[in-house]
Amino acid sequence: MKRDNILVPVDFSEQSLNAIREAVELAGDTGKVRLLHVLPPLESISPGVVWGDVSDSTREQHVRDYAVTFLKENGFEGLQFDVRFGPPGHVISDYAIDLHADLIVISSHGYHGVKRMLLGSVAEVVIRHAHCAVLVLRRTDAE
Amino acid sequence: MRFTYCLTTAFVLSVAFPPSAMAQAPAPASAQIEYLPPQPSTLEKVDGAFKRAVEMMEAVLFYRLATTQRQYIVYERGEAYVRDRMDFCPYEKLDPKGIYPAETLDIDQLELLSAKGRLVPGDPDSIGKDPYHRVGILNQEPIEYITVKIPHDDPTISYGAKYVHNQSTDTWRRVTAKRGLLSDTDVLSDQLVTSLGTNGWLQTTDHPADPTRPYVLTEQVGGIPVVVAWLSCGAVFFTLYMGFFNIWGFRHAIDIVRGKYDNPDDEGEVSHFQALASALSATVGLGNIAGVTIAMTLGGPGAFFWMMLCGLFGMTSKFVECTLGQKYRHVKPDGTILGGPMRYLSAGLKEMHLSLYGSFLSVVFAIMCILASFGGGNMFQANQSGGAVVQMLQGADVQRLSDLNAQITAAADADDTALMKSLQQQRQELSDRLTRSERVIKPVFGVILALLVAVVIIGGIKRIGAAAGKVVPTMCLLYVGACLYIICMHLSAIPELVTQIFTDSFSGQAMGGGLLGVLVIGVQRAAFSNEAGVGSAAIAHSAAKTDEPIREGCVALLGPFIDTIVVCSMTALVILITGAWDNNEWVVDQGLQGAALTSKAFGSEISWFPYVLSIAIVLFAYSTIISWSYYGEKAWESLFGPRSTPLYKVLAVIAVFVGTIVNLGSVLDFSDMMILGMAFPNIAGVVLLTPKVKRDLKSYWARYRAGEFKTFK
């Protein structure tokens, strides 16, 4: 089945590179793939916020700059990239609706134990809330 | 319900003698009574559970190296009066041959005796009977009993007086209330002690070193707690290894903070000055106001010298750890920073092929840091600032209460029962009112403080946090200004004080520990205050904008300088110069210590300053809570990932509220201890990483000398 609008949430890990690769292959065209990075809310008690001038807009700018270099280094130059703030699972699902995405390709970190309990699984939330199909890539060296 | 007391056999403290001792020392009549302490409340049970944890921690962290054993006795001659439990009749004398004349004691006589200070305090009673009795068992019968203190013919030997054995002269010297010093004048001969003991007038133990003399007790004194030795050895090692960089790097550090090398394009969150201010807001606070005063009252002027020395050497510890924090920090894609011991311990030691050891230290550090942030960072600060607020609002009434107490004792001594009773009535009303208002003030303060913390750390209202952070330097200047004013008023006393500081630092006595005692007190309090070697500041300093780790290390070494050598010494000098450390009325009679004593010392010089001080304490506490919450959050993030931090924040806010309302000594002790505990994993890793810092410093200094660094100011 051909996909025209694929959303790939990325956290700049090795696993998210796999997801990008998979998505580009499925779409057959880099123009049909949209990357999304979700940032946690601003740390209002960090020195940068209390004393310096760190804000959500400086963080977004940093991430965008970082993404350009990251994609260039890995041969995915020119992919569309977006940044949102909030709890990742829900933000990704909502973004997919706005985008009218027909597939979400997401990598799973495969956490276990305490980390699993505290972090939960973004992929799990996305599966539960997404309006479209979700392809979860299993991490090869899962914990 | 009252009979549940006798079921709690776990709490029974037997004061029975072993048979061999009985033959030597006839037991006083009261010794046949088995004391049953009241059942602990739920809060006390929680405290008790923590107490065991504290004892275990203490056994490790504060295990004292090189202690000495000394023998002591405690004069405790009492006359017991008993009655059946649940009875309301007067108490009857237990020993018919007893020296106290009254055969029975009714409630009026008890009140008079209590006002004269002649009764051993009873257990708090919930049923509304007299508050003077304790509950016990006599000949398998449940009883209530009163103990009347019997003074010795020699009036200097008072009930509860403690004497320490002097081996060389075979005499016993009185331990004074102030600093536990040994008296030169109150000395008992060994013969007298033996006769006191055989009469059964001394406290005894179940496990005496010498079974023929069960009244000779032993205790361990002096020595250095492991954690203090650990921090001191670390600081001295770093200073020697870096060739006293804390001294020759000082001027360069000032240049950096002034912004000479601030490149706005470097990666990081804040300028050098801002990073220093951020780190200082976590360390400047109660340690500087309350802790230093404790050091002075326990250790005397000699402790001042060791405190300064700890600050001076601590500068290098800070330099090394903050350089490492900067060197191994992780710059996240959004430009924010994750750095500190949990990073450099794992990443730094991994480079040295010690990744297992590094990960272990890093995890231990992070766990301790989280607990320290809940406890020493949040609960302790909230608790102490709540106390300061109560004190500020009740100050006048507390003074009236202490005046009333003095009047009651005077009336009792004059046997004026009518006056005494009316004064007691007044005191009861006043103290009830104080208790009631405290019960309102503390939770209200707790809710307000917790809300103010919550809106910043959970709600993300950045302006309040920023305002609190910026108030700290101003408060600091105001505080130092007031100290300088008081010192200038006593300028003529300075030369004598300086002499005393130097002579006492090497010869002074404190806590019976001599030189070592003074040293330990000074170093411990200074380390509590400046946190050098603990690793906490490295978390804040790693956020600085720079590509030269050494440069941020230089900035960090100013931390202990400002915290200890400037601010702590100001408090210490005020406490010494006003004589507050040696003031009988304040320290012994009123039992003032810590922040309360500091406040009193300032108040005696500048009458309105205690109000400013209370506000300063609250603001310092607030900014410390915010800063330590950040440290705790970063440690949490390194363990559990950034998405789980909301849970940490909720716990931190709860800790603030709980800290203000409960008065659980052990919970606070436990958490406070965690801060010093962080020094173990931190220094254990930093020591191995110092060669890297030294190499970096060499290269940095060569480039600095060659004028290679671009200046921006």
Features:
heterodimer; A: 143 residues; alpha/beta; Rossmann fold; five-stranded parallel sheet; 6 helices; 44% helix; B: 713 residues; Amino acid/polyamine transporter I; 2 domains; five-stranded antiparallel sheet
Structure overview:
- The complex is a heterodimer of chains A (143) and B (713).
- Chain A is 44% helix and 19% strand.
- Chain A is of the alpha/beta class and 143 residues long.
- Chain A has a single domain (6-137), classed as HUPs (Rossmann fold, 3-Layer(aba) Sandwich), CATH 3.40.50.620.
- In chain A, strand 1, helix 1 and strand 2 (33-39) form a beta-alpha-beta unit.
- In chain A, helix 4 (88-99) crosses helix 6 (122-129).
- Chain A starts with 5 loop residues before the first strand and ends in a 6-residue tail after the last strand.
- The model of chain A has no long low-confidence stretch (mean pLDDT 85).
- Chain B has 2 domains: 4-61 and 70-221, no CATH class; 224-703, Amino acid/polyamine transporter I (Up-down Bundle), CATH 1.20.1740.
- In chain B, the strands form 4 sheets. Chain B has a 6-stranded antiparallel beta sheet.
- The longest helix of chain B is centred in the middle third of the chain and has 59 residues, at 355-413.
- Chain B is α+β, with helices and mostly antiparallel strands.
- Chain A binds chain B through residues 12, 37, 39-52, 54, 58-63, 66-67, 70, 87-88, 114-115, 118-120, and chain B through 269-271, 274-275, 277-278, 333-337, 456-457, 459-462, 465-466, 469, 540, 543, 626-627, 629-630, 633, 640-645, 647.
Topology overview:
The complex is a heterodimer of chains A (143) and B (713).
Chain A: E1 6-9, H1 14-27, E2 33-39, H2 47-50, H3 56-73, E3 80-85, H4 88-99, E4 103-107, H5 113-119, H6 122-129, E5 133-137
Parallel strand pairs in A: 1-2, 1-4, 2-3, 4-5
Chain B: H1 4-7, H2 19-24, E1 34-35, H3 42-61, E2 64-65, E3 68-74, E4 78-84, E5 91-93, E6 104-105, H4 107-115, E7 134-138, E8 141-149, E9 162-166, E10 171-175, E11 182-189, H5 190-198, E12 217-221, E13 224-225, H6 226-241, H7 245-248, H8 250-257, H9 272-283, H10 286-299, H11 301-327, E14 330-331, E15 337-338, H12 341-351, H13 355-413, H14 417-457, H15 462-489, H16 494-507, H17 514-530, H18 536-541, H19 549-556, H20 558-577, H21 584-589, H22 594-605, H23 609-640, H24 645-661, H25 665-677, H26 679-705
Antiparallel strand pairs in B: 1-7, 2-13, 3-9, 3-12, 4-5, 4-8, 5-6, 7-8, 9-10, 10-11, 14-15
Helix pairs in contact in B: 3-25, 6-11, 6-26, 8-19, 9-20, 9-23, 10-17, 10-20, 10-22, 11-12, 11-16, 11-17, 11-19, 11-20, 11-26, 12-13, 12-26, 13-14, 13-23, 13-24, 13-25, 13-26, 14-15, 14-23, 14-24, 15-20, 15-23, 16-17, 22-23, 23-24
